[in-house]
Predict the 3D structure of the following.
Amino acid sequence: MLGRRFRIVASGAVIVAASYVIQADVTPRSQSPEIQLQLGNELLNEGRYQDALDAFKRALAIAPPDKVKTARAGLISAALRVAEFDLARAEAEKLVAAAPLSPDAIALHADALWTSGLFQEAEVRYKDALALAPDLARGHHGMARALAAQSKLEQAMEEAQAALRLAPRDLEIHHTVGAIYERMHKYEEAAAAYGNYVNLLPNKDHSEKADWSRSEIKFLKSFGQRVPFEIDPGTEAETYTIDFRLVNEKVIVRAKVNDGSFQDFVVDTGAENTVLSRPTAQRLGVTPITYTLSAGVGDVGLRGLQLARINTLELGTLKLRNVPCLIKDPPLRDIPTREAEALSPLALGFSMIIDYRTKKITFGKHLPVESGDFELPLRLHRLATVRGTVDGTHAANFVVDTGGEVISISKATASAIGKQEPARKIQLKVYGSSGWDRDAFLLPGVNLAFNQIRYNNFPVVVLDLETPSALLGFQVGGIVGHKFLSKYRVGIDLERSVLRLKQI
């Protein structure tokens, strides 16, 4: 393994969101904590989040005891907006320690846990906050996100609407409503909710999230009366089984776009949408509608892509109509292979079973419950993730990526467990649909645990995952790919929010 040339695909296309804008420095007019607090709030309202964070830091440094909680709460809110997740969590823990029965403090702590990828812990804390204050908008908003991550979309929408009634001008709630409607394939309602979000944005907000939302509105409206992911009536309960091939440790299936000929697609659960290369899109008449952003690994991890719509997508006996897709345009430069087409049944709204022994994939809206040797709680927030523990103490969220080849951890995770770059570093070049990391390296001697699954003294690939983390809105701790998954019959069950693994 060490002597071969590495070709590692990390998470695929990720269309995601976060709000962070960096503006010019603000020179404080006064060292008064009151003025710094006022300045921080004004900057926060203007969308100048980094400047707001700096103001709240100054306020906290000089605040008298009666202003500390206010300064810390503002600091947490700003830190979450600029993807300073570790800072937000550390300060939130201090805040809730000082005010253990404050619903607002508990909810802020839950927000920080969420952005750390600790989804289950966050859900518990949101429930704690709501038990103390049933009309807390932040608590209902948090529960909406928690339920949506478990694919409980109807319940999630009820919580989101409850939050909206309590805080109708909270733009983040409008964005969450839009995201839930989009997952429900209610595109008209989703576009309206994203429109409300954009209309409430500060004039100076030109963040990636704002740009993404404007692009998404245009894309969703382009569907008009078309039904997204449309299938024939009465077929919702059917399951579909197709063969696959393993090529360079990637799962390859044959699929047909716009009644063209069947061609190879990588089954990539690290991709949020079906992904086409520019030549394939042009050949099959898939026309770009608007531009969007995607995030992948490394310093080339933020990439402009084109949003488009596939008229028909055939996968085995399944035929879907009006399928959202991404076009990789412009293509990535300097990668050692041609960019491949990719799709994920998860992105199409289906649960799936990959049997690496029989080389068959089964997918459907409702899959029968199977026995498994291991079951891991699954969360779907843009991408499917499971919880792992690194070196016995550090909990981290791992993307389940069938398009990836190895098990990796983020640079942030490596730093958190105190792992330094080895003296004799094995340099790697890691690439995916949305970027590549020229500075990835192999790190030996890491201990990983996924409930009862153990990897002791194991070599992992260390990746720069800061861009996808910032844009996703939570800390991505690592990725589990082929090396992890291929030992099992893998069930990714969205309906029951579980990753089911049966040894083969």
Q: What stands out?
A: The two ends are 22 Å apart (CA to CA). The domain at 369-503 is CATH 2.40.70.10 (Cathepsin D, subunit A; domain 1).
